[in-house]
Amino acid sequence: MKIYLDNAATTALDPNVLDKMTQYFITDFGNPSSWHSFGRDGLKAVDNARDEIAAILGAKPSEIYFTSCGTESDNWALRGAVYASTNKKKHIVTTTIEHPAILDTCAALERDGVEVTYVAVDSDGLVKLEDIKKAITDNTVIVSVMTANNEIGSIQPISEIGEFCRDEGIYFHTDAVQAVESEDLNVDKLNVDLLSLSAHKFHGPKGIGILYMRSGVKIAKYMTGGHQERGQRAGTTNTPLIVGMAEALKITVSNRDQYVKKVSELRDYLIDRVLNEIQFAHLNGGCIKRLPNNVNLSFDYIEGESLLMMLDLNGVAVSSGSACSSGSLEPSHVILALGVKPEIAHGSVRFSLGRETTKGEIDYAIEVLKKSVTRLREISPLFNVQKGEGSYV
Amino acid sequence: MYNKKVIEVFSNPKNVGEMPDANGVGTAGNASCGDIMKVYLKIEDDIIKDASFETFGCAAAIASSSVATEMIKGLSPEKALNVKNSEVVEILEGLPPQKIHCSVLAEEAIHAAINDYKMKMESESKK
Which of A95, A375, B19, B112 maximizes the CB count within 10 A of its CB? Predict the structure, then answer.
């Protein structure tokens, strides 16, 4: 049995999306920038996809820019805002729990002399509007707060922060990559100026993303080399992937209510059973304002990556926020930001459910999890199996 | 990413568990860094008769512990002190670069256990 519980990392392509895309790889393959009929057919498909995506986001088609991924969109939003700013000193406000696409970009900009304020979150992983307000300076160019966190699923008060930023005349960007399946991403309701999306997080193809940019927002272009995307983002228009993304978004949005109901029930079932049946287990992040598919758990006295590996050996695919799986030896910056101690943060794993996840799969995953945690605690010097208790000292 | 050998050793580690009659016990690493290795040795007639470990850490740390304790069984403490982390890596047919420190930890835990044994012997001979 193989069970995929890592849908926050990526999702399977919807077969209907693949069907839609195929013709634009093979028959209608023309470059939308070409003047002949092949090109015109491609352009028509791209225009149509742009219209559909814009309608879903409550945006104008001219406000949708296609990029290669969420990371590119995040880079463009931040760098573009900074490079276009005429402020003598430039300042960015973001949070401590952003995706590396934001944090690493901020770090790079800091090396170029940009000031960045990283606003802390509470123990549920939520940022407070008051703290954003306090972080603003006269030099603030852009505020960037993710819609929902990728590791713990905390859903931020985007609309409120956006309203404040608009009153202040500061650009507001959100990385909404994790939020598409469950949240209403109407850009007017969210009060955002810039919003990043990535198709492969909602059963679309990898390699295509969106930057929504509100009319009137002036950010510098980031990719140069051609006139595509109204001169703002060069690079050959990726017709099949754009068509696929639009289709995936339509399917996702039309099934949203059903998805939220089904997946949040499974999420709560998983959390309840684990916390009841496995000792010394903790849920990271809060119970409310949490993505319906996100479960992040820490297990005391064991390390997350070895748990991930043991689950994988038994057919259950999850991700570890901890340690070395990502190539770094630090525990997850997100779990640490919640105030969790490093030794416990090291023992965290993320289960992210998908639209195809079944209760039977969750039951199986729980059985494997129980065995794996028991086995790793047998191996751990921090846990005494006879006494059934552990200590970090 | 791990190779097959590391995964194989991790999924079936040898010498796991506390050893009640150990006469040399050593620990390396700390929990906040994400790995602790505890090595138990039973040394008789200047030979490591038995070795076991308990490890809190990643798959590479557990696999390194298994291989390292296996390697030193039957050696004299002095020879065991010469076992290098690179030999552990070799038996595991390589570790990802950021995981090399796991093999170093195994070497350190063995050194700590042998030093513990030596100190016990010294204090006994003074009695």
Answer: A95
From the candidates B102, B106, B110, B113, which is the catalytic residue? B102
Q: Give yes or no: residues A150 and A277 share one domain.
A: no
Write the pLDDT tens digit of every residue in A6-64: 999 999 999 999 999 999 999 999 999 999 999 999 999 999 999 999 999 999 999 99
How much is the pLDDT for A329?
66
Return the residue of B nearest to A379 by Cα.
Answer: B54
Answer for the pair A305, A325: CB distance below 8 angstroms, yes or no. yes
Question: A300 and A217 share a domain?
Answer: no
Q: How many CB pairs under 8 A join A and B?
A: 75
In the residue annotation, B58 being an active-site residue is answered as no
Assess contact for A199 and A244: CB atoms under 8 A. Answer: yes
pLDDT band at residue A321 using 50, 70 and 90 as cut-offs? low
Place of tokens 């997100």: A334
pTM of full prediction above 0.90: yes
Chain A residue with minimum CA distance to B60: A306
What is the per-residue DSSP string for chain B?
A: ---HHHHHHHHS-SSBS--TT-SEEEEEEEGGGTEEEEEEEEEETTEEEEEEEEEES-HHHHHHHHHHHHHHTTS-HHHHHT--HHHHHHHTT---GGGHHHHHHHHHHHHHHHHHHHHHHHHHHH-
Low-confidence ranges of chain B (pLDDT < 70): none
- Which of A313, A327, A392 shows the shortest C-beta gap to B98? A327
Average pLDDT over residues A242-262: 98
Q: Contact A381/B11, CB-based, under 8 Å?
A: no
How far apart CA B12 and CA B15 sit, in angstroms, is 10
| Residue A302 Cα distances to A253, A280, A306, A367, B52, angstroms | 39, 10, 8, 17, 18
Q: Are A139 and A91 in contact (CB under 8 A)?
A: yes
The fold of B4-120 is: Sufe protein. Chain: A (3.90.1010)
A196 in the same domain as A103? yes
pLDDT at A326 over 60: no
Residues B25-44 pLDDT 10s: 999 998 888 899 999 999 99
Share of chain A above pLDDT 70, in %: 98
Q: What is the pLDDT of residues A124-150, one digit of tens each?
A: 999 999 999 999 999 999 999 999 999
| Domain of residue A34, residue span | 15-254
Q: Hey, what are B11's tokens?
A: 């999924």
Together in a domain, A327 and A279: yes
Q: How far apart are CA B25 and CA B114, in angstroms?
A: 7
Question: What is the pLDDT, as a whole number, of residue A315?
Answer: 98
Reading the block at residue A52, the tokens are: 């559909």
Q: Least CB-CB distance to A381: which of B56, B59, B101?
A: B56
Contact A194, A213 (CB under 8 A): yes
Shared domain for A275 and A218, answered yes or no, is: no
The DSSP symbol for A179 reads T
Sign of CA dihedral A48, A49, A52, A55: negative
